[in-house]
Every structure is written in C-alpha cells, then in structure tokens.
Amino acid sequence: MTKPILIPLSEAENGSRLRIRSIEVQGVLRRRLLDLGFVAGNVVEVLRRSPLGDPTAFRISNTTIALRREESSLIFGERIGGAQI
Amino acid sequence: MTPYTVAFAGNPNTGKSTLFNLLTGMRQHTGNWAGKTVITAEGEFTHNNRLYRAIDLPGTYSLYSNSADEEAARDYIIFEQPDVTLVVLDATSLERNLNLALQVLEITGRAVVCINLIDEAHKLGIEINLEAISARLGVPVVAISARNKIGIEALLDQIERVASGTYTAEPLHIAYNEEIERGIAQLLPMVEQTVGRSYPARWIALRLLDGDESLMASLQNRMNSQTIPDPKEAVRHGVTACH
Asked: Where is the FeoB-type G domain (chain B) (predicted)?
C-alpha cells in the first residue's frame, strides 16, 4: 500500500476536500482548533480565499471557519476529492 | 426544601438562553462572578411543586481552551457541583456540539442532554436517534424546541429524575490509548489522596496529563481555602472535611 500524500491545508486549492491526518499546531491554539473540529479523521473543504490570499475559509463540521496561513500550514491532510459537493 | 440547582451549559447560538428565559421568565437576574469578567444570569423555575435554581453558564465550545468564559463554566461544574448540568445542543450541528457534551459528561453523570432546535433539524431532513445517543452517553437525552415550546415538559421530567437521584449515572468513562491509560492509572491514587472524594479523580488525572495549568490553579485555590479551618463554613455547606 502506498502512503497517502499529505499536504498542508494552506496548499490545498479552492473546492478541494481533505481528510485531516495531523495537526502540528501546539499549545492553547491547538486545543482551540481541536474544539472547532480540526481533528484527525475529519473532512475539511477549502471554500475560498480572501483577495490577498490569506486568510482562507474552510468548511468543517457544518461550520465555516477562516484560518490564517500560520495555522493552516501546520494542519496536514490527504486529498479525497475535487470540487464535487 | 432547598431548591435543586441546574446549570445550563452549551455552545454559543444553541438557543440555551432562549430555553433559560422560557423556563425562568422574569424571575432572573444577572450576576458577575467574583474575580472574572463573566456575566451570567440566574433564575428560578418550578416543576411538580419543586423549586429549581437555574444558572446560565457562558456559551462555550469547550471547557479546555482556557478563556475566562470556559474557566468560569468549568469551575462552576467542578466546584459548585450543580444537582443537574443541562447540556444544550444544536440539533442541526450535533457533531460539533457533542464535543462539549463529552467534556461535561466526563466530569459528571448528573447531567441531562437537551437537543434543541429539533424542528429546524426536521426541516433539514435530519433524523436523530435519541435512544441510541442516550445509550452511548449514559444520561437522559431529550429533543426540544425552546422557541416553539416543544418537548419542554419531557425535559423537565428528566431534569427532575436526575436532580432527585431517581436516575443516577457515573461520569462517562472514555477509554483512551494505552499510554494515556497508564498515565491515568499512575496518577489516580495521588489525585484521589489529594483532592478527596468530592471531585472527579479520573477527569482531573486526564487534565494533569494534558498539562492544564489553569485547572491546577483553580484546584489549588480551592484546596487552600478549604484547608483553613473554619467550622462555621463547614457546617454551612455541609462539607465533610475528612481528608
């Protein structure tokens, strides 16, 4: 079996869906992200980017949450689909 | 008879305060907890001729992220030990909301889970298996609509069952991986010896493993104030100072 290719959320294109595999954010912010649904195994969809490319809106657990690159570059997942909803 | 205390916990925007206002009506006032800039509401309601004191905790997604709101909600549940903690969930986004429910249920089994906005969920085609959720969580689960006054009597009946002790449950026991369980097993005897029987030892051990300094500070505060011998205080609160 080949190992899934993991990319940071910050690199995923708009409309793509990823299954979260690891969260490298530490400390209080890690806890906050976990509480918001950024948990390994959960599926996140990249909704859109703001005009300057940051922050990015993500759809997770039925809620839209915007993350800055500082955080989204430390959350890794594997692609599980394109723009189909 | 002293009134039963019911603490209302829940995520923001779950209709927690709508339910609180519906039950307590005009009989409420806002309070500001000592040492914290957290405003909360307290009120009263009656059911089957029993008086209940209701406390509206701040709406939070978690009890662990250490904002003032979350610390206040956590400390209330741990230290004030309400007769019932009512966890209000949004039926249209249960997955997110169950996070807080699990956190509360690991602390106490004296809880009722209330799934609000059930009419909204039905409109969205969401079906919720209350029996299955109740079986998994080990506490009564009731679906309501606070806004349209659906299921309120059933909810009050379940609150009464838990408050009166007709229904009792232990805190929810979540099995963690081997490493964490080993840590808990090592800490548990020390925790039990230090904090006594009145606090949920397994949960405190878990928080220690997580390095929760805010809880440590709260506990320390609490323990220090208890070690000061004050017989009047002990009698007033019925505290058994046997540790």
From this structure: 3-165
